[in-house]
Amino acid sequence: MLQDMAVGRLENEYRNISAVSEDRILCFREGQVLLSRGAEDGLTLPTLSLMEIGEGARAPRYLFRLQEENYFLWTDSAPAEPMDGFAYEPVRTLRQLKSKEVCFAIMTGWHLYNWYRCNRLCGCCGTATEHDSKERMLRCLGCGNMIFPRINPAVIVAVTDGDRLLLSKYAGRAYTRFALIAGFTEIGETLEQTVHREVMEEVGLRVKNLRYYKSQPWGVDGNILTGFFCDAEGSTDIHIDENELSMAAWYPRHDLPAQDDGISLTREMIRIFGEGKEPK
Predict the structure, then answer these.
(1) Can you identify the CATH homologous superfamily of domain 152-274?
(2) Which of 128, 120, 111, 124 is nearest to 73 (CA)?
(3) What are the sequence ranges of the domains in the chain?
(4) What is the pTM of this model?
(5) Alpha-carbon distance 52 to 55, whole Å?
(6) Are 152 and 184 within 8 A, CB to CB?
(7) Along the chain (280 residues), what's the average pLDDT of each consecutive run of 10 residues?
(8) Is domain 10-118 annotated with CATH 3.90.25?
C-alpha cells in the first residue's frame, strides 16, 4: 500500500530544526502541490535550494523525515510562477505506484498543512496560536488552549456473500473507479457500529461476522482508514442511497472488475478476496 516503504520509514515526531539546501519542500496552493514530473512520470519535490526565499519571508516548518530525507512545509506565499521544470498539480489526483513514496509524503504533508492552516487562531477565544518548540502542538497565546493534529477515523468495508463481493461507485465525485463501502465514524460510535450503519445506509444490507483486516493513513482527507470484512446477513437485495452511490452490485470472486494498484487499502482488500485469502 501507499505507506509501505521500500527502504527507511516515516519518522513523524516533530523536530525544532531549520531547513537546509537539500531538504525537500512541500509547497501547497489552492489544493495543489508544487512538483516536477520526470522520466516515466516519476515525481520530484523541490529542495530548499530551488525555492526563492524573499526578504522577511517566513521560514519553512519541519514536517517529518521519510526515506532518510527531511520534509518541510513552505509557510510563505506560494510562488505565482514556478521555477523551470516544476508545476502545480492537484493533490487529489496523485496516486502513482512509481512515485508512491513521494505521493505518501505529499498526502501526509497535506494533512498537516490543513491542520496548521485551520488553527492559526484558537477555537476557544480567537487569539493567535504559536507552535510549541518540543512537540507538534499549537498553543493559544491567550487562554493556553493546546491543539494537536486531528485524525479522522473511517472504515472501509468489504461485504461478502459466499464467493461474491459487493462493489460500488461513488456518486458525484471525480473518483469513478470501483470502491468498497466507506464512511466516517460518528460521535459516540465504535468502529464496528460504523460498519453496520454505513452498510445499511448506503446499500440497505445487514451484516455479521465482522473481521478486522488492516489500517491505512490517508492524508488527503486527514483519515485513518480501518478495513473490515463482513458477511451479508439475511436478504442480499441491494437498495442504494443515490446521494452517496451511483451503483452497487455483487461480483463473483473469479471475475472482479478491479485490480490491486499497490496504493490503496480498498484495492488490496479486493485482491485479497479474489485470492480467497480474506480473514474468515
Answers:
(1) Nucleoside Triphosphate Pyrophosphohydrolase (3.90.79.10)
(2) 111
(3) 10-118, 152-274
(4) 0.91
(5) 10
(6) yes
(7) 74 95 96 88 91 82 94 92 92 83 94 96 96 96 96 97 97 86 97 98 98 95 96 97 96 92 92 95
(8) no
